């Protein structure tokens, strides 16, 4: 995706779902480690041109749903302020003040650089803390562009229901390492400017809670009356995971048509995959034909 972002969509806003696993899918993200990773995600979300819609950190992977913003939305003064806030004034003057502003605009608007810095910073902390050497993360992160409306809302809900599907708890609001759980557990805590509900059709966490409850009932309906069976995954879960990581672009038929222009240079798409494909979920289409 990094190569294509330097093309026709560089100065456009878009939504993207990101998922990244640890090497060998080892369960390295214990509670303290999840807390640190969450802090790092927030830190780089203040620096890069992104707004966070959804985040959930599990024991061997994390999900991010973000809106990438146009670099033209940010003045040179705002970019410098962000850099100084992130690195400190002394380090900024010493290492970065000589670089042209265009360099920072390209860097801070890159989804690949955003994820790279999160994972790299976390790896350094984790290996140092655990007296460990070697690769922490597995293959390059998976990603899919998501269309506004139902596409975003389904993706956001899928992310927040992760710990429930895992069987760790019954209420996603009890999970402290997701955006939803973090603010559901502390309703008096104000969500920072880095967070948004834009594009989802939701206005606030209360409105989203009602939808998530409805989505959760749908989710559990695929698992039978007795709930989730350990070691098994529902067909809906399998489909959503494939769509949100391999679907290239997910959303309305109109969104898929526009997304094709973005992905014209994607050699991984066959001719048959250049039209909207029904996903099996009402109102959602995929640029790639995903089958179970």
Query: Mean of residue pLDDT?
Result: 83
Number of strands: 7
User: Please, how many domains?
Assistant: 1
Topology pattern, helix = H, strand = E: HEHEEHHHHEHHHHHEHEE
Helix/strand structural class: alpha+beta
Tally of individual helices: 12
Specify the CATH architecture: 2-Layer Sandwich
Proportion of residues in helical segments: 40-55%
The level-1 CATH class: Alpha Beta
User: What is the 3D shape?
Assistant: globular
Portion in beta strands? 5-15%
Strand order of the largest sheet: 2-3-1-4-5-7-6
Radius of gyration based on Cα positions: 19 Å
- CATH H level, superfamily name: Transposase IS200-like
N-to-C terminal Cα separation, in Å?
Answer: 24 Å
Major sheet details: 7 strands, mixed
List the helices and strands and how they pair.
Layout: H1 2-5, E1 14-21, H2 31-47, E2 50-57, E3 61-68, H3 76-87, H4 89-96, H5 101-108, H6 111-129, E4 142-146, H7 150-160, H8 162-165, H9 179-185, H10 205-221, H11 235-246, E5 249-251, H12 253-262, E6 277-278, E7 285-286
Helix pairs in contact: 2-3, 2-6, 3-4
Q: Could you explain the architecture of this structure?
A:
The chain is α+β, with helices and mostly antiparallel strands. It has one domain (2-70, 109-286): Alpha-Beta Plaits (2-Layer Sandwich). 44% of the residues lie in helices and 12% in strands. It contains twelve helices and seven strands. The protein has helices spanning 2-5, 31-47, 76-87, 89-96, 101-108, 111-129, 150-160, 162-165, 179-185, 205-221, 235-246, 253-262, and strands spanning 14-21, 50-57, 61-68, 142-146, 249-251, 277-278, 285-286. Strands 2-3-1-4-5-7-6 form a seven-stranded mixed beta sheet, with helices on both faces. Strand 6 and strand 7 form a beta hairpin. Helix 2 (31-47) packs antiparallel against helix 3 and helix 3 (76-87) packs across helix 4. The radius of gyration is 19 Å and the shape is globular. It starts with a helix and ends in a 6-residue tail after the last strand.
């Amino acid at each position: 995706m990094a190569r294509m972002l330097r093309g026709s969509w560089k100065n456009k806003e878009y939504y993207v779902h990101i998922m990244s696993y640890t090497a060998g899918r080892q369960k390295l993200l214990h509670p303290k480690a999840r807390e640190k990773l969450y802090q790092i995600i927030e830190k780089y979300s203040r620096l890069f041109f992104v707004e966070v819609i959804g985040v959930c950190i599990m024991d061997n992977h994390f999900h991010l749903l973000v809106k990438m913003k146009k670099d033209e939305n940010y003045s040179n003064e705002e970019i410098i302020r962000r850099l100084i806030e992130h690195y400190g004034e002394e380090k900024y003057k010493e290492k970065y003040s000589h670089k042209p502003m265009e360099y920072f605009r390209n860097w801070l608007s890159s989804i690949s650089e955003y994820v790279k810095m999160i994972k790299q910073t976390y790896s350094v902390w984790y290996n140092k803390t655990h007296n460990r050497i070697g690769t922490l993360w597995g293959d390059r992160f998976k990603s899919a562009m998501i269309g506004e409306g139902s596409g975003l809302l389904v993706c956001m809900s899928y992310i927040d229901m992760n710990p429930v599907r895992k069987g760790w708890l019954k209420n996603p609001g009890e999970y402290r390492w997701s955006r939803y759980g973090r603010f559901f557990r502390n309703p008096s805590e104000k969500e920072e400017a880095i967070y948004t509900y834009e594009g989802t059709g939701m206005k606030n966490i209360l409105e989203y809670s009602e939808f998530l409850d409805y989505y959760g009932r749908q989710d559990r309906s695929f698992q039978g009356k007795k709930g989730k069976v350990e070691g098994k995954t529902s067909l809906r879960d399998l489909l959503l995971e494939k769509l949100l990581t391999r679907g290239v672009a997910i959303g309305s038929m109109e969104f898929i048509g526009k997304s094709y222009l973005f992905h014209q240079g994607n050699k991984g798409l066959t001719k048959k995959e250049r039209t909207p494909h029904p996903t099996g979920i009402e109102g959602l289409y995929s640029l790639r034909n995903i089958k179970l």
